[in-house]
Amino acid sequence: MNELSQSLCLYYQKFFPSKLFYQWITRDGKYSQTRELAAFKTDSFFNRYLHFNSSYELSNYLIRYVPERIEIGPIFDHLLFNKINTAKMREFVIDIDIDDYDDVRYCCSSTQVCEKCWVLMSCAAKVIHHIFKEQFGMKHILNVFSGRRGIHFWICDEQALNFNEQMRTYITKYFNLFTNQCTNKDNHPIIDIHEEYPLYDEVYQILEPYFEDYCEKQEIFKTEQRKEQLLKLLPQNEISQVTGKLDNLSWIILKEHFKNNKLILISIVFTYLYPRIDINVSVQLNHLLKAPFCIHPSTNKVCVPINFNTIDSFDPNKVPTLQSLQESKLSSFYSFNDSIELFSRFVKESTQ
């Protein structure tokens, strides 16, 4: 057994919350025979359609085979044996990755993320929670750090579990502002709002208070290139009026200038801060997704749940890692025990 496998084996023995995890994915044992788990180990195996009769059986499997990655699949119609079975149910999941915002962040790129660009993830979370709680009446949303560059949102209400793929497609298109999204001549994604709609105004009220802070952190109004990128979002006949204020341009000035044309302000804020989602993850019932409390293979970070109430101050660079747990550094910035307690409360509330 190599060093990584030894560390993972210790993690599965001492830290991985097998009992809580099993209770969550099987709905307190209701779907123990039909909920798919998949396990992967480099140059060794990729096993799909696994199911376990108890948390004890799951724990024994993890300790014996030491997978490097655990993924969650759907709930099938029959006892899991092979891929002939039909996927019937799955939580509604939204995947947000920070590298999808690379055209509007300048502090990092690709899989890197820091405090200056985390505001983009925080804004996505605020919008997702608002839409699915206020528009769709959902109550149980688990926010999980993906381990490297984003957040997975598991919407676990019974109603969401039973959405078919057609319903998932409708909801995703509604949420994604699909008909409004396009790209500019630089091939950067933009959202161009042409008509008033209650949802747009609600989301704008959530995002606008973050926009000035975002502009400050990303220095949007401090460099010519970034100012020009923002000005390209304005109607052609308005650009000349604004360029006269270019030296002192700020979000406050733009808000004042377009106070009678709120749709322009909404388009600007949405283009920068509105959630950018992976549609396939949300729509496809049989899509696999990395499990909470998995160890990310590239960063060795734990995929910990995130407390929505403190998501603005979450720092992905300070979460527990496989090494920090192995060295018993449990007093790190984010306590692993706190993550377990957060997950425990969520499981109790969502499986009642």
UniProtKB/TrEMBL annotation:
**Which of UniProt's keywords are assigned here?**
DNA replication, DNA-directed RNA polymerase, Metal-binding, Nucleotidyltransferase, Primosome, Transcription, Transferase
Claim: GTP-binding is one of the keywords in the record: no
GO BP field: DNA replication, synthesis of primer
Q: Which GO terms describe its cellular component?
A: alpha DNA polymerase:primase complex
Against Gene3D superfamilies, the record matches this protein to:
DNA primase, PRIM domain
The family note in this entry says:
Belongs to the eukaryotic-type primase small subunit family.
Q: Tell me which PANTHER family the record gives.
A: DNA PRIMASE SMALL SUBUNIT
- Write down what this protein is called: DNA primase
Organism annotation: Entamoeba dispar (strain ATCC PRA-260 / SAW760)
